[in-house]
Design a protein that fits this description.
Elements lengths: L2 H11 L3 E5 L18 H4 L5 H6 L1 H13 L11 H11 L3 E6 L5 H4 L7 E3 L2 E8 L5 E3 H11 L12 E5 L8 H13 L2 E5 L11 H7 L3 E5 L12 E3 L3 H8 L5
Parallel strand pairs: 1-2, 1-7, 2-3, 7-8, 8-9
Antiparallel strand pairs: 4-5, 4-6
The chain binds adenosine-5-diphosphoribose and zinc ion.
The site of zinc ion has 8 residues, from loops.
Length: about 250
């Protein structure tokens, strides 16, 4: 049987699929991933959370990146891979999408926001690190571009940061707990477009496998966890998932 046939069979047989996505599902929308040639981390260095909090100049650089769109996270459109995942959710084959992505494209493709579990937050809005108040980027852009002063909270004056989880920043407890529950409840764990190189997010595939689920990895490049997968399919997510996802859902 061809790998695509295996994948189609696994999806058809699955009672409950946990879909786990990384930046690789968004590259066909023009959003660069992180570690492929030309990826975001091949061009700029990540800003650690502690530096952001401690140093106003670092905050200034982080906000410049946000408002110059260097990572191109905001403004892209979902692609066939996102649409296929949305059909898996719509057909009831998957209850939730566990994503490392911050680009809001699963929501934009029609997955109801409560069914998108964002392990690394979301780049389409900001919040205050002190009181948690949400701030819309559109409300912050003009002031920053005019003054180059990193935004502060309109309620408490605290430090405001885009709602992504940076290196060194604590993982959000509620999404982590939901991701673990989905991982333990599934009988098929489907990885789409991740190098599986960043913990603790990358611990979920093997957690599912150890719990008796089938593990499938669809990724252009090999990953360190391919050896544990029931199927590791190296191909383009848009084409692969369009071929195996339900026609409607
Ligand atoms: N189809 C299939 N696979 C693809 C495609 C595609 N169209 N485009 C890219 N890929 C694969 C690449 O081969 C690569 O292995 O997607 C993977 C993306 O890996 P990374 O760039 O490491 O992205 P990701 O795994 O999501 O990174 C995890 O690292 O920096 C942090 O917070 C950031 O959430 C991110 C985390
Ligand atoms: Zn505040």
């Amino acid at each position: 049987m061809q790998p695509l046939d295996h994948l189609a069979r696994y999806i058809a047989d699955a009672r409950r699929i946990a879909v786990f996505t990384g930046a690789g599902i968004s590259t066909e929308s023009g959003v660069p991933d992180f570690r492929s040639p030309g990826g975001v981390w091949t061009k700029i260095r990540p800003i650690p959370f502690q530096s952001f909090v401690a140093d106003e100049d670092v905050r200034r650089e982080a906000w410049r990146r946000t408002f110059t769109g260097v990572a191109r996270w905001v403004g892209a459109r979902p692609n066939a891979g996102h649409a296929a995942v949305a059909r898996l959710v719509g057909a009831g084959k998957a209850r939730a999408v566990i994503t490392q992505n911050v680009d809001n494209l699963h929501q934009a493709s029609g997955v109801p926001p409560p069914q998108v579990i964002e392990l690394h937050g979301n780049a389409s809005y900001a919040h205050c690190l002190d009181c948690g108040l949400r701030h819309e980027l559109a409300d912050l852009r003009e002031g920053f571009l005019a003054t180059d002063a990193p935004p502060t909270c309109r309620a408490c004056g605290g430090v405001v940061k885009v709602a992504t989880v940076s290196f060194g920043q604590p993982m959000p407890p509620a999404p982590m707990a939901r991701a673990e529950a989905e991982t333990m409840a599934c009988d098929l764990f489907l990885v789409l477009g991740s190098s599986l190189s960043v913990m603790p997010a990358a611990s979920f595939p093997l957690m599912a496998k150890r719990n008796g689920a089938r593990l499938v990895i669809v990724n252009r490049d090999p990953t360190d966890q391919d050896a544990y997968a029931d199927l590791a399919l190296h191909g383009e997510i848009g084409a692969v998932m369009s071929a195996v996802a339900p026609a409607n859902g």
